[in-house]
Design a protein that fits this description.
Elements lengths: L10 E12 L2 E12 L3 E5 L6 H7 L10 E9 L2 E2 L7 H7 E4 L10 H11 L6 H11 L3 H4 L12 H13 L5 E5 L7 H14 L4 E5 L3 H7 L2 E9 L5 E10 H6 L4 H7 L5
Helix pairs in contact: 3-4, 3-6, 4-6, 6-7
């Protein structure tokens, strides 16, 4: 779909001068962007530019790191996510996360998917909900006869799709993905990418990826970050450019973006 044909949707997230600190160190500085609903937004850039740090801010995972803090605004539907009255646990239910390595629980396939609904006391028929989520994660046909088997019996790609099924079982609005295909082979990667495109019809997805071809294949919008040195020689993650993916890859407005995409640095 061409950028000018994409549906314009109200932002799910709005970042205004958002910075992330670890103690006194400013890992990410002054990011301004909006994330639209039911689209895939990709964060790309060289290692050390703060992509994953920024991603973890969207569901307050950085709260779990001693000394981590944010400055500026990160709003979710207009609500400051870091306001004192906001419950971080509820944020993480609404904003799910899929990590680089599949973090399945040492439980059965069924119990992995049912875990979140049980803990959150979601009123639903668990059998139906587990099936629905496995279907949506494109895994049902492969596991429907082995639901009581250990999740560890699955391949890496199957485990990652199980993690996605577990994520959507608590009915989030947003799915964060931090290098979800980094440990997968090309066939498993293609299945995850196809799944992402299907899920984006109903979920807002933000993905961090080092794979520029992946960003070009699946995302609607792309943000390019780099690490810049300050006057003291300290590196800080900085947003260089953000816009429709097709435009970013065909006619970037910043020479640093063009250099990275063309492989001249990074």
């Amino acid at each position: 779909m061409d950028a000018d044909q994409m549906e314009i949707t109200a932002p799910v997230f709005t970042l205004d001068q958002l910075s992330v600190f670890y103690g006194d160190y400013q890992a990410v500085q002054d990011v301004n962007l909006t994330v639209p609903a039911r689209q895939i937004t990709a964060f790309i850039g060289p290692s050390g530019c703060g992509k994953s740090t920024l991603l973890r801010s969207f569901n307050r995972m950085n709260d779990l790191i001693p000394g981590a803090r944010v400055a500026g605004l990160l709003a979710y539907h207009g609500l400051d996510l870091y306001s004192p009255e906001v419950d971080a646990i509820e944020v993480r239910r609404r904003v799910g996360m899929v990590f680089q390595k599949p973090n399945v629980f040492p439980k059965s396939i069924y119990d992995n998917v049912a875990y979140g609904p049980r803990v959150n006391r979601i009123k639903a028929n668990l059998d139906d909900l587990v099936e629905e989520c496995l279907v949506r994660a494109a895994l049902w046909d492969e596991v429907k006869d082995n639901l009581k088997k250990s999740a560890y019996a699955l391949s890496g790609g199957q485990q990652q799709r199980l993690v996605i099924a577990r994520c959507i079982a608590v009915r989030p609005e947003v799915i964060l993905m931090d290098e979800p295909c980094a440990s997968l082979d090309p066939i498993a990667t293609a299945k995850i990418e196809e799944l992402m495109l299907q899920l984006a019809r109903d979920y807002t997805i933000i993905i961090v990826t080092h794979n520029m071809q992946q960003a070009a294949r699946v995302s609607d919008r792309t943000a390019f970050f780099t690490a810049e040195l300050d006057s003291d020689g300290v590196r800080h993650g900085t947003l260089v450019e953000y816009g429709p993916t097709r435009q970013m890859f065909s006619a970037p407005s910043d020479s640093r973006t063009e250099d990275y995409i063309s492989g001249r640095f990074g």
